[in-house]
Amino acid sequence: MEQILPHLDSVFSIDCVLFGFDGKELKILLIERNEEPFKDWWALPGNIVGPDESLDQSASRILYELTGLRGIYMEQYYAFGDPGRHPQGRVITLAYYALIRLGGDKELRPISTYAKRANWLPITDLPKLAFDHQKIYDKGLEKIKRRIKHQPIAFELLPEKFTLTQLQHVYELVLGKKLDKRNFRKKIVSFGVLKELDEKQKGVSYRAATLYRFDKRKYAKLFGKEISF
Amino acid sequence: MEQILPHLDSVFSIDCVLFGFDGKELKILLIERNEEPFKDWWALPGNIVGPDESLDQSASRILYELTGLRGIYMEQYYAFGDPGRHPQGRVITLAYYALIRLGGDKELRPISTYAKRANWLPITDLPKLAFDHQKIYDKGLEKIKRRIKHQPIAFELLPEKFTLTQLQHVYELVLGKKLDKRNFRKKIVSFGVLKELDEKQKGVSYRAATLYRFDKRKYAKLFGKEISF
DNA sequence: TTACTTAGTGTAAAAAATACACACTATATT
DNA sequence: AATATAGTGTGTATTTTTTACACTAAGTAA
Known about the structure:
WH-like_DNA-bd_sf (chains A, B); 229 residues; 2 domains; DNA-binding; elongated; homodimer; Nucleoside Triphosphate Pyrophosphohydrolase
């Protein structure tokens, strides 16, 4: 986060790439800056780490201030600290990615003063970003691409109950490629971390799909044994 | 790195887990602290990031000061910043792992004042470490375990010319398990990144093994296609 | 009732992973 | 010169995993 620059030798901040999935597209939350430098540019949300916060707490706080939500899944992935990355001084920033399902619609809340507004923008069509935020975003996407192959993070982007087609859709968007339906189902079911529900999808004008849920218990029992996509 | 505490709100440092392989064991370089806190304890080498250094430059410098060597392979892997991790104030540290081959014997050089001495200690028998350095080390080992499966980092621990048995040994030590000789050879050769030399091992009192070299060109041609162990 | 749209399913072929044991070769020893 | 020693180097059969591929079933809308 870049807006406050106290007169210290260096500032330590956290920036978040918050990925959201609305059932159709993969988006990230960007804020439009209201202050120099990069006034009117889009930027990743971020902030300075408080003196008594842990790094994870700080990232949680930032996400809470943006969305009003607690308990968002997130993980730190890289520190950026080139001396020239901030025009006004030394700012070392630790990047987090975070994953959230969109659609509740009341996730966005009034945001702090350094931003005019925040917006969900599809990753297929991002504007130019302030600072080195393009680099930070790129690395974040790369990270979740890798991560989704081995860890059950796709479920963070979906509602609690979801169809296999929706799940496949998430994988396809993150990995950036089409997957074969039958092979996908075979594989994802074989991991044994999905619970098939008795329920069906509702409100669709075609055959309703079976709903599934991610079964944390079963996953815990795998005990580190890795999923491999 | 923990020894200097200027009166700032927070200090940003880098700590390094430098892994070395001497042909037999996997070791890490630890320093014995000469200052409070944790005087006389073993700790990971580290230092504060200078105002005009990038993060990687800072890590390189730390490694150079310790070993007199430049160009050591290294990579940042995690930031540790719990408010309580340093007894005397807020220190956020970014951890790097680094890999080096031992055996040249002149790698260690006089070190800075906060340490009495530096020593290579086998990872199978580490002492208690200062601060949260055990946690930092654990995560570093975990990281290279993961990384060695997909990236050609094993070669950083070996001399330029090595035998397949030595290479297998590195994999076994890092992964912490025995591998089948024939299957290992089949697989590692199938990646197509090794160049078989005309040379043989010397000075052994048994059948001399063929020497190999990591072929960077061939690896570059794979163009991101991942090795998978 | 028909048209439309997505759900859901199986199999054969190819590729990759695994398990497994012995003869070869260079040196050191007597 | 013969022998002991210690690590090198190799092949195959079996199992498992991955891939490619297309049609019927079910529900809704007209």
